[in-house]
Amino acid sequence: MTLNKYNIEVFGKEFTISSKEKEEHVYKIVNYLDAKMREVSSQTGVIDFYNVLLLTSIVLVNNYLTLLGDCNKKEKDLKYAKKIKELINLIDSSLERKDFL
């Protein structure tokens, strides 16, 4: 896959980037980052590009790690639910055969 070049603007600064992603996806990411940086700047009063970028990065990594933890918990919950279902089926089949005590 070839790299495409994109001229983007984030928080008032222009950059040229290369990406294998489609244009629509690149601009979706860029627009999200720009909006988050503006939100962080508005909430903190920080206006320096690199300081806002750092604070926004911290917020986004925190959000990512929180979601990752939630996914891991749900995955673990699904494993427990599957094991419980297996145990219930085992108990049910034992009761049907009257294989208990």
UniProtKB/TrEMBL annotation:
InterPro entries on file: Cell_div_ZapA-like, Cell_div_ZapA-like_sf, Cell_div_ZapA_N
Cell location: Cytoplasm
Biological process, per Gene Ontology: division septum assembly; FtsZ-dependent cytokinesis; septin ring assembly
A GO cellular component entry from the record: cell septum
Membrane-spanning segments: 49-69
Keyword tags: Cell cycle, Cell division, Cytoplasm, Membrane, Septation, Transmembrane, Transmembrane helix
SUPFAM superfamilies: Cell division protein ZapA-like
Quaternary state and interactors: Homodimer. Interacts with FtsZ.
Function: Activator of cell division through the inhibition of FtsZ GTPase activity, therefore promoting FtsZ assembly into bundles of protofilaments necessary for the formation of the division Z ring. It is recruited early at mid-cell but it is not essential for cell division.
PANTHER family the UniProt entry points to: CELL DIVISION PROTEIN ZAPA (PTHR34981:SF1)
Stated name of the protein: Cell division protein ZapA
